[in-house]
Amino acid sequence: MIPKELIERINELSRKNRSEGLTEEEQLERDNLRRQYVEAMRTRFKDVLDNVKVVSPEDVSTSTAQVNGLADKQSCSCGCGEKKLH
């Protein structure tokens, strides 16, 4: 999880940079915080991908709609109320 304080500080430095500019020390801090943020995002993304299971249609005996009990109740998802997909 990315600490809220990290994001808040990155945003604070970004606002300051747009309004008045950053000192060299603040630029280094911003760059370091951004690296931490990107690394945390990469780690989270990798964790998600590591837990993805790819299933081919041949491996599935029932569709998601059938599992959820929606197979005979299919209707348009746009909210028009039609009992058919269009």
TrEMBL record:
A Pfam short name: DUF896
GO-annotated cellular components: cytoplasm
Record's signal peptide: none
Gene3D superfamilies: Helix hairpin bin
UniProt record similarity statement: Belongs to the UPF0291 family.
Ligase found in the keyword field: no
Chief subcellular location: cytoplasm
UniProt entry keywords in alphabetical sequence: Cytoplasm
Intracellular or extracellular location(s): Cytoplasm
Protein name according to UniProt: UPF0291 protein F9B85_09520
Annotated spans, Disordered: 63-86
Lineage, opening ranks: Bacteria, Bacillati, Bacillota, Clostridia, Eubacteriales
